[in-house]
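Notes from hallway chat w/ T.B., transcribed later so I don't forget. T.B. wanted the structure written out for a chain they're using in a teaching module, and asked if we could keep both sequence and structure tokens in one place. Agreed to drop them here.
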Amino acid sequence: MKALILAGGRGKRLGEFSEEKNKCMVAVNNRSLIEYSLSCLTQLDISEIIIVIGYRGKEIKEAYGDSFKDRPIKYIIQSEQKGLVHAIECAQSAVGRDDFMLMLGDELMLNPRHQAMVDFFKKENLFGVCGVVEVQDRELIKRTYSVVAFEDSRIDRLIEKPSHPANDIMGTGNCIFKNAIFSYIPQTPINQKRGEKELPDLIQCAIDDGQIVKTFPICDHYVNVNVPEEIKKAESYFAHF
């Protein structure tokens, strides 16, 4: 299994924090955002880490080079910032025929359970697993995606940035996929509001085709850092990480 970290976005909503540096290199308690994800991967049996870079991506390459704690790193350039699905597509040749774990370079997780999620993925021979978090404030779900699942955790429907979340389950960018997920990229619709293909819609295409994708409680607290206020929130969670 390989790992794919998406770190190509501009991060305009972070304002001055990302004007002169890559968004994923913004520091939280003296560590870059992306380093939290890299550290999680060192606990797993990952053969290679692939990082998709774009805006000021050279900063990530200079910081981490060709390996992180003995895990080889390969960089893929996303020349146009056209969303997460496009970034995944850019990395297809690097992923090759392997299954892979997906991460976003601007996500932070308290007490992550990545190894347990990998074990769940393999034990049940699933097409995919979506890491989810139960939240008290449904407004948070409006920033990511909503997950509607059956009692056995099999996903029925995913909704990108829902106006009215149906439950307290928030989807994250931490997922595991069979390699065949790439075959659903061509049929993934373009989101009319954002003008790009969205991750939940890609996964929904596979589900609608009969593939089994389930949820997994990935962590205790989750922050997707998109605005300055979320940096402070993340620092409060990860003060002792």
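Follow-up for T.B.: The chain has one domain: 2-237. Might be a good example for the class.
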